[in-house]
Amino acid sequence: MSLSTVASGVGGLELPSFRLLPISSTQIQFLTVNARKQSRRRRELSFSPFPLLIHSNHRLRHGFSKPNSSIDRAQCSGETGHSDTTEKSSVASFEDGEEARSESSSGLGDSYVALFVRMLGLDNDPLDREQAVDALWKYSLGGKKCVDAIMKFHGCLNLIVNLLKSESSSTCEAAAGLIRSIASVNLYRESVAESGALEEITALLSRPSLATVVKEQSICALWNLTVDEEIREKVADFDILRLLIGFLEDDDVNVKEAAGGVLANIALSRSNHKIMVEVGVIPKLAKLLKGDNSDNKGSKVIRKEARNVLLELAKDEYYRILVIEEGVVPIPIIGADAYKSFRPDLYSWPSLPDGIKVEQTAKAPSRFGASELLLGLNVDKNVDEVDEAKMKAIVGRTNQQFLARIGAIEFEKEIKSEGTVKSQQQQLTLLPCVDGVARLVLMLGLADELAVTRAAESVADASINEDMRVSFMEAGAVKPLVQLLANNNKESVKLPVIRALKNLSLSRTVCERIEAEGAVPFLMNLLKQPEISLSATEQILDILAHILDPSKEMESKFFEGPVSGSKAESRKEVLDAAVISRLVQIAKTASPNLLRKAISIIEFGTVANPNMDAIISEDITTVLNVALRQKVLEEPENEAEELEKHLLELEEAGLTISAASRLLTKLIDSESFRQTNDTKVFTELLRKILRSSLPLHYKDSVANCLVKLASPSSLPQSLNDPINVEVTLYKTIPRLVEQMSFPSSPEAKEEAVLELNRIVSEVPESTQALASHGGIEPLVKLLEERNDRCVEASLSVLYNLSMDSENHTAIIRAGAVPVLRRIVMSQRPHWNLALRLLRDLPV
């Protein structure tokens, strides 16, 4: 049978039913050469805008380099004869002859495609099927026209997918490679997904031992498929993502890059972010991006794909925090032109990034500046050892300043994007923490206001924990932020700067640095301005409440002694009558959150300056009334779905009431305040709060204020005093019950039960309060202690509780009867008291 007869028969799908022989190397080479010629002729193929992975590896390309088959020579000899005899013909005639030869070869190649597709059938020998799919894979590398020639045979895709189940690595590699080529064409991606390829590829990748080439081709097929948004949703499965994350640690770099590419495509759909985070993609990619492993530093592709995934995830505020916690910081891209204003101090004496000057010990400068250059190599014995945070700050500053000086910190002179101007201004990159913190600090010193604004916003976003805040402080971020606060009058710059300082001030160490840089006077001046926005006011009060914290001031006085004279005087000057008046004005009309912060700063004024005339002269009583009248205390507990919101409101109300009670306690010491104000109003308000459902730890300051109001002269009062009785019932007894119930030392439990025994013996109403707060069960548990004093006190309190028959059921339910019987039978100390208690119980 001639070759043309075979070709015509295959074209009509009327193949004879005899067993097909193995494919010869001549046939495979012919298809390969034909595919290469078609690829050269058609340069305008319609591919996806995404990078499509249709290139073979070096082994396959090496196999394509031998086109000297007998069929090829025979076919070409008849078509190139004219050009051999007309060497002086025009270029156009040569191209016509080449086109005619290509068209003839294309027809013959399509015939062989049909033959190989027929050989994919399930009724053929596995070796024939393997050679057929391998030939089709090589043929598909010619481009879209070759893929179209394969896909015009209906059902061939299902046969190709079926070959992924083969036990042969070469068969699986060829089948996966062919699916990869088909998926590179936009038209066929949906067909590939519907053919069950995703499920078969997942099953293939789940095999315990799989050849590297098979993994590479299979993952690259997923890479091409996930270009389609609908297919991404199907690929974003927990099992597939778990496999891809595992392949990020593969020994082969091509497998790593392919896995990273699939994850980058999946991350383009925001709906996939949650499952990606749950499966643990952030720590793995952050490690690859930072190059913690030396093997990963040379792979630019995997680092690029890791950066793309993390940037997509960082668009969500919560996921951005998770990214930063892994030591990767989002950095705004501002363009290389913005860094032209950077002017390093080239000839100044070396200093640490936070501004601390290195002590100059040399008597005279060295001839060529070697003492300055090698300063870090000679550490004086009297100099404290530089901690890790300072060392990282020095390394980061050196790296970023060097890049800025040589013009390599950003290569683009202007940001180019297909999006809008707003999207151009929001472009980000990711850097490891050391370089990222130093880059942001460098940007804060530039002349470009947009760059400074974006840097301040990034500092605020990155200040998520104590380590990051201290890192920014050591890198020198506080000083430029305070300078921007003082010198820049534009609100677009001030608001990000204030937000950055607010987040940094959450650290007590950074608070001290902010105050040392002189930020408090500038913040107070901003607070005095009536046109300042509400959001800026809230953030400024946040910063001042952290710096001027009265509890921290009392602690520093106790542990470190009085504040130095210059610092104390500066605080008195800052907290003048105008500031107090402004704070009172804010507190009258502000939200509960601002009210609490304003009261806290006013309270600090009473600690820093005992002369409270400036505070009393203002309408401070109105502020206290507003703070102590919280609506949430009057509302009943809501339904279950609103319980969480109710508890949150109770916590916020507790903070405000606690701050107001502390301020009122200090104001009571002033004679002028007691003479000009009716303290009975505050007494009734505080008693009402004490009986409310306010969390117990917020009632401490309320109880202290009530006792102070009842006895301003600090004289000891009787426990039966009405105020003291309420304090005992609603504050002391619940606290003692908690002390007995929760894990604590035996000494603390003994102290609590002895105090309860004293209260029960003196205050008759205390037994009902003790039972209502759940004190019976911990008292019964204390009966099993080996401490005789503890057991005696517990028996005494339980005996007083048993006088009320309503408590009998609770005592029995707590398991008191068996314990009391053991005490009586063993005749332990105080067994007679246990016997009396047993007789009172209905047992």
Notes on the structure:
It comes from Noccaea caerulescens (Alpine penny-cress). ARM repeats lie at residues 196-235, 239-281, 476-519, 774-816. InterPro entries: ARM-like, ARM-type_fold, Armadillo. The chain is an all-alpha fold and 843 residues long. Among the domains are: 108-310, Leucine-rich Repeat Variant (Alpha Horseshoe), CATH 1.25.10; 327-345 and 391-408 and 427-530, Leucine-rich Repeat Variant; 722-840, Alpha Horseshoe (Leucine-rich Repeat Variant). The chain is built from 49 helices and 2 strands. A two-stranded antiparallel ribbon has the order 1-2. The longest helix has 29 residues, at 91-119. It is flat.
Walk me through the topology:
Layout: H1 3-11, H2 25-41, H3 58-63, H4 70-77, H5 81-85, H6 91-119, H7 126-140, H8 144-151, H9 156-162, H10 169-183, H11 189-194, H12 197-205, H13 212-225, H14 229-235, H15 238-247, H16 253-266, H17 273-278, H18 281-290, H19 300-313, H20 317-325, E1 328-332, H21 370-373, H22 388-406, H23 421-424, E2 428-432, H24 433-444, H25 449-462, H26 466-474, H27 478-487, H28 491-504, H29 508-516, H30 519-528, H31 534-547, H32 550-560, H33 565-574, H34 577-589, H35 592-608, H36 613-617, H37 620-628, H38 643-667, H39 671-676, H40 679-690, H41 699-710, H42 722-741, H43 746-762, H44 766-772, H45 776-782, H46 788-802, H47 808-813, H48 816-826, H49 831-840
Antiparallel strand pairs: 1-2
Helix pairs in contact: 1-6, 2-6, 2-7, 6-7, 7-10, 10-13, 12-13, 13-16, 15-16, 16-19, 18-19, 22-24, 22-26, 24-25, 25-28, 27-28, 28-31, 30-31, 31-35, 32-35, 34-35, 35-38, 38-41, 40-41, 41-42, 42-43, 43-46, 45-46, 46-49, 48-49
